[in-house]
Each structure stands twice: as structure tokens, then as C-alpha cells.
Amino acid sequence: MLPIEVSGLKKYYGNLKAVDDISFTVKEGEVFGLLGPNGAGKTTTIEIMEGLRERDNGDVKILGFDPWKNGYELHKKIGVIPQNFTFFEKTTPREAINYYADLFHVKVDADAILREVLLEDMAKHSFESLSGGQKQKTGLALSLVNQPELLFLDEPTTGLDPNARRAIWEVIRKLKAKGKTIILTTHYLDEAQQLSDRVAIMDHGHIVAIGTTQEIIQQYGSSERLEIKGSQRLADYIRENTELQVEYNPQRGTITIPLKKRTDALASLAAAEQSGLEWSNIQTRQDSLDDVFIKLIREPLDGQEETAPEAKTDKKRRH
Amino acid sequence: MVSVKRIYADFKVFSVGYLRNKFGLFFGLIFPVVLILIFGAIFAGGGDGTVNVYAQNQDTGIFGQNIGDSFLTALNESTTIKVITINPSDNFVDFLASKSASEGIVIPPNFSAEYIAGNQVNITVYGNPASSTSGIVTGTVNGYANYFNLQRFNGTVVIGLTSATINTQQTSYVDFLIPGLIGFSILTSPMFSLVNISSEYKKAKLFKQLSLTPLTKMEWLTAKVLFYILLSAAGFLLMVGVGVFVFGVHVTLSPWLIPFLVLGPILFAALGMLVGTVTKNPETAGVIGNIITFPMMFLAGTFFPISIMPEYLQTVARVLPLFYVTEGLNNVMVYNNISAALVDIAVLGVITLVIFTLAVKLFKWRED
Fold first, then answer.
1. Residue A85: its chain B contacts at CB < 8 A?
2. For B186, which of A241, A263, B307, B329 is 20 to 30 Å away at the CA?
3. Class of the A223-285 domain?
4. Do B206 and A319 touch (CB under 8 A)?
5. Is the dihedral of CA B20, B24, B28, B33 positive or negative?
6. What distance in Å separates the CA atoms of residue B258 and residue B241, rounded to the nearest whole number?
7. Each residue's pLDDT tens digit, A248-257
8. Size of interface A-B (CB pairs under 8 A)
9. What's the CA angle centered on A296, arms A295 and A299, to 5 degrees?
10. How does residue B130 score in pLDDT terms, banded at 50, 70 and 90?
11. 3-class state of residue A5 by DSSP
12. What is the pLDDT averaged over residues B212-240?
């Protein structure tokens, strides 16, 4: 049995297809990233998996449970940080952990958990006095109280400064090293790339790409290419003297040559040297996850028409 | 299964948070006491020291003269008594009871005739041996009777005094204020707090978060209700203490108070929960909460007895749930009228059951 099996999942809000027929599975010990712009359907998907939202259609099995019907049982076995985690203002992280331990009827070493999430210094500070990163760490700490094998982290680093983000990443890596299965939503590409074994890129309720980041780049990105600075004449020279496909960008003054095999790079450079013309700044480039993401996400740059209905859905979802 | 351990855990975390919040503590315990001190100080002095006495003149008069009227007019000129005359056809004892008055004067029907004829005729003076003001009233009436006797009959006793005892005790404004303000704090603390908590938690998605733990919404609500019952009990003791020691109020403490101190917080915690649940956001919840709370705060007999309000407002007061708390507390603490208090308990019980059931039904941990 896989910890997560989702197939044909649908969730509509009126006419808006928040999640439209998505399927995926997650293996034990895997960190699975759900990546996508705001409003892509990530949170709806993760909340359905957590049993916080009812699905309209499709099969969802989390640790073998139907998350909506058997939510109460499921919740004893999973850990969750909801988006924008908050807690009782006057409660300290240590009290919060002990509170959760009482609710779950488990004995825990609160200090050990605080150390695990790098929050031992703030054990006695009230929640309202914590920084954004420390609040998220409190959330992480609470999600660990019932010693879950499966963790759902919904945008764990949104709105945090780079140092706080890295600290959270460190904690997540430690959890992964302990063999926990983790579902992570994020709209930060680097976060998905840094932490996930596999990612699914979501857009408008669909999964538009799924796999390891390498796989996705290979599948949807362009292959490796050589770039050198030079003139139009040099570009023509290389084109005439090799069998390579050469593109020239007059504004940037760059010559781009797709590399089908490694020797293509040598041939291009040999031709350039032979031409006696000036050239510089050799570099090879490959599409990053960023490039692929931009290609895959159909979001118009002026954005106006897109954001309006999304804002509306957001509001709807909150209530 | 309801877990006592989880209720206790939630109760503990909530109480600790509450006690750390100086604001909540102030409004929960200190503010009602401040109100007692302020209102008590305004009204407790009693001003010029005259005693208000209800009097009924049944005298029909003779030869166009009404000696009863002259007697009461004379009494009214004393510095110790202010006479308030009432309709001769009213049942005097019932009237005194309804006003919680411990003194009264009745002039008999044949007063003028007997007086003019020189036959002895007695004025009835009602008083309560336990009341300090009863002596003043008897003394004053006696003094004027002697004066009337002296004037016309050279001291032969024609106008005599009959004493009658009544058990009502003059209630001062402060006596009444204590149950009223206890009602006030039973209303405001749980109500404002639960309106705020339930709408803010919903907005911050804290309920969603709690739904991911084994805590159930029923356990959560029970913990809140328990907390507010204890807070109300603490407020009750504090307010009665201040009332007794600072203003020397006369209140009766009895186990019959317990139903009000328990049902009240349940009712208003549930009502606050209901408001927070059915409204879209904390701002609307706050407004709706105030619309419900403020009329109750003033009309349900908290700061002043509803008997001084016009008839139509008294009708309004009777549909306000808080009315049955304040009336019940008054019935037990001030009037010692347990059978009336039982009616209040019954009405309050039904309202509480309805509101609580509704709140639990409509309150959702998670969305669909």
C-alpha cells in the first residue's frame, strides 16, 4: 500500500474547477512537492488529502483511509501544517506541544521536539511574540507530536525571509532523513527543487508535469546549448563551416548553438577560432526548472483577468 | 468518545492564555466590581436621610373635612419622612411587597368622623423589626399623633397607633445592583469572548487546525463553558464580597443561585459561539454581537430594576434571555422568592438548551 493514492480527483466551486481530474501517488519516504502559482489548486488538493475538505469526485486513499469519511482516524496518524499557521496568542511553544500531546494521549519530550525544529531558545515565549519563521517552526513541532509517518506541509516558508526559509528547509531535510513521507506545497521553485524527490506542477487545477525535476526539465525544457558572444559574421561563419544549427541574437550579441552531442561544442569552438573573428564568454546553458515552469504555466503577464476570479475563489474557500 | 483528559487539556491551555491576557481579566473580573463601586457610590448615600413611606388614606372624611389628608400632609412636612400616597382601593400589603417596602401607613376609613367625635381611632403603621428605618417611621408617626392629640384634646389619646409587622425589607439600590451586575458579567464575559474567539479562530483557520487533532468540537466548547462557569463564580464571589463589605448590602446566599451561575455562562457562551459561527467575518460578528448584547445589558434589569421602566419596555425585557438571569438572581438574593426563581430557572433552562443545541449544530470544525 502506498501512503498516498489519488486518482481522478475533482473539486469544483460553482463554475470554477479548482481541482480538475488529477491523479498521482506518493511512495513511502518520498518528499513530494506540489508546485504551482497561487490559485493553481495546491491547497485544495492538500486539504482534501488531509480530510479538511470534501472532494466532489475521484478516489483518495491516505494511509489506506478515505480522508473525509475516516478523518478522525487519519488525523491520529498524520502531521499537518496548514497554510499561514497560527496558534493561541498567549501560549508558548512548549505549552503548545504539551497541549497537543494531551490531545493525542501521547507522552512526548517537548524539549526534544523543540530541538528538532531548532526552536529550543523560544520555548517560553508566547506565540504572538515569535517571528514568522519561529511560528512556522512551532507548527512543524506540533505536526510532529503524534509521531506521524506522513507529513503535509502547506506552503511552509511563504512570507519568510531567506534565513528563516533555510532553517525550515534544514528541519524538513532532517525529517526526510528520518524516513518520513512528506507532501509539500510551495510556489517557490528553488524550494521544490531543494527538498523534493519528485514534484507535480499544477496549474488551473491540472497537473501539467510530474516527475523528478530532472525528468521534468528533460521532458519539457530545451536541451543543452552553447552560447558565445560574437558578431553576426561569426555566426554565419560557424553555420557555413559546421553542420550545426546556429541562432544569432543581434540585441544581446549572442550566438546560440543547440548541442546534440558533446563534440558539437568542440566543433563550434574550433570554427570560431578558425574564423579569426572576435569572440568571448563561452557558456553552456540548459533550461532550469524556472524556464520550464514559465513555459508550462499559462499565466498571462498582464494577469488582470486571471487574478480577479482567483481572488474570488480564494475568498470562497476561506468560508 | 468524549475525553475528560482532552477537555482538561483544552481548559488548561485556554485558562492560562486568558489569565495572561490582562484585558480579558479586567473585563471579566475587575470591570463589574468597578461598576458596583461607581453605581454604589452614586446611589448608596441616600441623600438627605428622609425615608420614603407608602401611605394609604382610606378616610372618607366628614363635613367636607378629611383629617387623614391633614395628618399625612403634616407628616410630609417632617424632615424624616416623605409620604407617598397610594390608591385607597389597592391591597396595601401586596403593594408593599411588590415595592419591597418595609414600612407603610394606613389611615382607617372612619378616621375623620371618630376624630371629630373624640373617639379613639388607630393608625396602622407597618414595619419590619429588622429594618433600621422602621423605627424612624413609627417614631415620626407617633410624634405627629401626639401633636394632633395635644392640639385638640389636651393630650387625651384619640389617635393611637397599631403596629403591624411585614417581612419585606426595604431594598436599597445597591442591594438590587449586585444581582444586576452579576447578571451583567454573566452576559458580557462569555458572550464577547466567544463571539471574538469563534470568529477569529475561524478566520485564522484555528478550528481547522484543531480538527486535525483528536479534540472534538463538543470537547472544545465544554472546556470554554467550564471556564466561564468558573469565571462567573469567581466574579460572583468578588461582587458579593464588595457589596457586603463596602456597601453593607443585604443579599441572601442560597444553593438556588447555582442554576443561574451555571446556566447563564452556558447560554451566553453558546450564544456568542452561534454569532461567531453564522457570521462571515470577525467584524460582522462583532457588530451582530453588540446588537444582541447591548439592549440586554441595559434593558434586562442589570443597572436598574425593570419595574421602573414603562410597560412596553418591560414586555421587551421579558424576551431577553438575560432578564431571566437577573430576575432569578433577584428572586433568590433579594426577595427570597424561590418559587418565582424556579420559573426563571425553567425558562432559562429551555432557552439555554435551544441556543446550545443550535450552536453545536451550526458550528463546523471543517468546511465542505
1. 209
2. B307
3. alpha beta
4. no
5. positive
6. 17
7. 888 888 888 8
8. 78
9. 85
10. low
11. strand
12. 93
Contact B330, B179 (CB under 8 A): yes
Contacts of B205 in chain A (CB under 8 A): 82-84, 86
Amino acid in position B32: P
**Which residue from A67, A147, A73, A66 is spatially nearest to A112, judged by alpha carbons?**
A147
Distance from CA of B239 to the nearest CA of A (A): 27
- In Å, how far is A155's CA from the nearest CA of chain B? 15
| Other Cβ atoms closer than 10 A to A250 | 9
Q: Report the residue of chain B nearest A87, measured CA to CA.
A: B206
pTM of the model: 0.74
Q: Which fold has domain A4-77+148-219?
A: Rossmann fold (3.40.50)
Buried b (16+ CB within 10 A) or exposed e, B40-73: beebbeeeeebbebbbbbebeebeeebbbbebbe
Residue closest to B362 by CA, chosen among B153, B221, B178? B221
CB B221 within 8 A of CB B267: no
Summarize pLDDT for B138-151 with one digit per residue, the tens. 888 888 888 888 87
Which segments of chain B belong to CATH 3.40.1710.10? 51-165
B13·A71 Cβ contact <8 A = no
Q: Give me the residues paired with residue A115 across strands.
A: none
| Residues B33-51 pLDDT 10s | 888 888 877 776 554 557 7
Element at B341 (helix H, strand E): helix B338-362
Nearest to B213 among A51, A82, A104 (CB): A104
- Per DSSP (E only), the strands in A142-300 are 150-154, 181-186, 198-203, 206-211, 225-229, 247-249, 254-258, 280-285
pLDDT band at residue A275 under the 50/70/90 scheme: confident
Distances (CA, A) of A177 to A86, A172, A212, B277: 27, 9, 18, 42
> Cell 482538561 appears where?
B8
The CA-to-CA distance between both ends of chain A, in Å, stands at 35
Inter-chain CB proximity A102 and B8 less than 8 Å: yes
Separation CA A236–CA A244 (nearest Å): 11
Mean pLDDT of A90-103: 96
Q: Which residue has the cell 467575518?
A: B281
- Chain B residues touching A103 at Cβ < 8 A: 6, 9-10, 213-215
From the list A53, A103, A317, the residue facing B215 with the nearest CB is A103
Helix (H, G, I), strand (E, B) or coil at B122: strand
Say whether A86 and B20 touch across the interface (CB within 8 A): no
Residues of chain A with CATH 3.30.70.260: 223-285
- Give yes or no for A107 touching B (CB within 8 A): no
Three-state secondary structure call for residue B274: helix
| Chain B interface test: which of A83, A103, A153, A313 (most B C-beta within 10 Å) | A103
How many angstroms separate the CA atoms of B346 and B343, rounded? Answer: 5
pLDDT (0 to 100) of residue B190: 92
Check B6 against A82: CB less than 8 A apart.
no
CA distances in angstroms from B40 to A294, B36, B253, listed in the order given: 72, 5, 20
Q: What is the ipTM of this complex?
A: 0.76
- For chain A, give every residue range classified as CATH 3.40.50.300: 4-77+148-219
Contact map slice: B 277-296 vs A, CB within 8 A: 280
Helices (H), B45-172: 67-76, 92-98, 111-117, 132-153
The one-letter amino acid at B305: P
Q: Is A72 on the interface with B (CB under 8 A)?
A: yes
Residue B126 bridge partners (DSSP): B104, B164
**CATH second-level architecture of B51-165?**
3-Layer(aba) Sandwich (3.40)
